[in-house]
Amino acid sequence: MATQNTFPALKNDLILRAARGDRVEKTPVWVMRQAGRYLPEFREFRKQHDFFTICRTPELACEVTLQPIRRFDLDAAIIFSDILVIPQAMGLTVEMVPGKGPHFPQPLQTPSDLARLKLPVDVNQELGYVFKAITLTRQKLEGKVPLIGFCGAPWTLMSYMIEGGGSPTLSKSKAWLYAHPDASHQLLQSITDVCIEYLEGQVAAGAQLLQVFESHAGLLGREQFLQFSLPYLKQIASKLKANLQAKNLPIVPIIVFAKGAHYALKELSDTEYDVVGLDWTMEPREARHCVGETVTLQGNLDPCALYSPKEDIRAAVKKMAEGFGSQRWIANLGHGIYPDMNPEHLRTFIDSVHEFTQQEN
Ligand code: 1CP
Predict the structure, then answer these.
(1) Alpha-carbon torsion, ordered 234, 239, 245, 247, to 10 deg
(2) Cβ atoms of 254 and 272 closer than 8 Å
(3) Which residue out of 83, 150, 162, 163 has the highest number of ligand 1 atoms within 8 Å of its CB and is therefore the one to mutate?
(4) Which residues does residue 329 pair with via DSSP β-bridges, in sequence order?
(5) pLDDT tens digits along 276-326
(6) Cα–Cα–Cα angle for 42, 43, 46, nearest 5°?
(7) How far from the centroid of its chain's Cα atoms is residue 182's Cα?
(8) Residues facing 297 on adjacent strands
(9) Centre of ligand 1 from the C-alpha of residue 62, in Å
(10) How would you class 298 by CB atoms within 10 Å of its CB: exposed for 0-12, middle for 13-18, buried for 19 or more?
(11) Residue 165, phi then psi, degrees to nearest 5
């Protein structure tokens, strides 16, 4: 495996500086789901390759990761994969149904189904293909921008494993929290253990920044979030950092994105995460006031705002930049970009972030 010092020298470290709270001359920007179906080159690629085949083949995952980097002036790449590779590594089958999304033919139904999970997971064996994709992509990036690694957070992954796919209510998985709290904690802990080892492996392979996606926080109330999500998110950041230190690996910055968790913003900022991601329902000034000055914020334009005419996108970016201020901010959308977005509107978003924030500094 390549070690950190055999990789090409980094030419743009804006996002790493912003994540650590160091001064930046302009605001870094990347976009959740920046590699994906809104890009014609991705759709073309998907005609030839199945989704999980791309994830499992380092050359293909690397190519798709680089597609948005070739097109746009982005300040980071994110490795092409999916949060559902962890449930697969734990022994569940996940299929990607075209036009519909992920599908688990045999989701967990009752606590007795926990016996079906293949535990403990040999992370190198089951997810080594992601590590290889990261190392290859880090080489192929030639130091242009840093590479972000990621995983799904325990509650979000638990909810997919029980719902068997997307769900507007999460009523089956939330039922576990109320009816089977002990089994829920057992499952959340098993997922947490995999997340920690998986993220550590990504750093060893060359990831320079990490994001933990708690995409399903919004359907939990504050009380359930504090009980079933936050403790595991905290465990991931603290154990991961301790493990990286113990193994002499770089202690990379970590972003937590808990979509819909406006009710626990203060608690999220009071953790070992370096960056807290915001969805578009949170007001930048209020969020800054709530968290104080010691954490970097990321976000948060409504992904649907990119359907506006370009002049309105520019105005929205300007307003967002005024709200966040020029330091301790990583610009992004408040959730992933939608598949029917015009890529030229994304270009306007990216370029106006740089334009407005460079003028300010
Ligand atoms: O560019 C990037 O951001 C890297 C690639 C990436 C990431 C970070 C993909 C590719 N998926 C993800 C994370 C992911 N996957 C999340 C967290 C982010 C978020 O909240 O959106 C989630 C919830 C998933 C699960 C998932 N995978 C969904 C959502 C389904 C639902 O519940 O509504 C879908 C549609 C997928 C498939 C998927 N993952 C990625 C792509 C490009 C696609 C489209 C599949 C295709 O090409 O057919």
Answers:
(1) -150
(2) yes
(3) 83
(4) 297
(5) 999 999 999 999 999 999 999 999 999 999 999 999 999 999 999 999 998
(6) 85
(7) 28
(8) 276, 329
(9) 16
(10) buried
(11) 165, -165
